[in-house]
Amino acid sequence: MQETDQPYVFTNDDPLNATDPLGLKGGVADACYAAESNSCYRQAVQAVKKAASTPIMKVLTNAYVSANNFANHVVVGFGGCIDVCLNLSLQGTHVTLSVGEAGGAVKGPYIGYSNLLPNQRQNTQVFNTEGLAVGGSTSIGVRPNGSIDTKDWEVDVGPVTGSAGGLMWSKTVNLWP
User: Fold this and answer.
1) Domain edges within the chain
2) Distance CA 163, CA 137 (A)
3) What does the pLDDT look like over 77-108, one tens digit per residue?
4) Of 15, 41, 67, 176, which has the fewest CB atoms closer than 10 Å, so is most exposed?
C-alpha cells in the first residue's frame, strides 16, 4: 500500500474476481510469483507448508474430515406405511426409494444415521418401525444369499403412530455423479 497506493494491487485491483493464495502477486512480489524456481517463491511455499503442518491445522483438518464423513452418513427422508411401506430418502448425494412389506405405521419426515454410504448398502433390508406420536425405525441389510449383513444398519427417528416391519427393497440413484 505504501509503495503503490493501491490496496488490492496483489489482485490487480480486482479482489472479487482475482486470487492470490500465497499473497505474492503485485508490486515487488510479482517477480517472486512469476518464477516458481525463484528462492522467494520457494520460501513462501515452505512457509505455507509449515503453517499447514502445525498441530492446530492438523486438528482443524481432522475435525473437517470427521464432520464431512458424519454428514455423508446422515439420512433425511419421508415415508410411511398403510399396508405397504414407502420411503424416499436422501443420504449425501444419493436418493433412495424403498418399498416394504406389511405395515400399519403412519410415519412422516424423519432423520437418521446409516453406518454405510448408500453405494455400500444392500438393496434389501429387514426393518421395524414402532411409535406413538414420536418413534423410531431400524433396518439391517440382507445379502442376496439371505444372510444378515450386520455392517449395514440404519436408525431413524421421527413422528410414528403404530408399527410396521418386514422386508424392504431399495433402489439408490446418485444425483451428482
Assistant:
1) 9-53, 74-174
2) 9
3) 998 888 888 899 999 889 999 998 877 777 78
4) 176
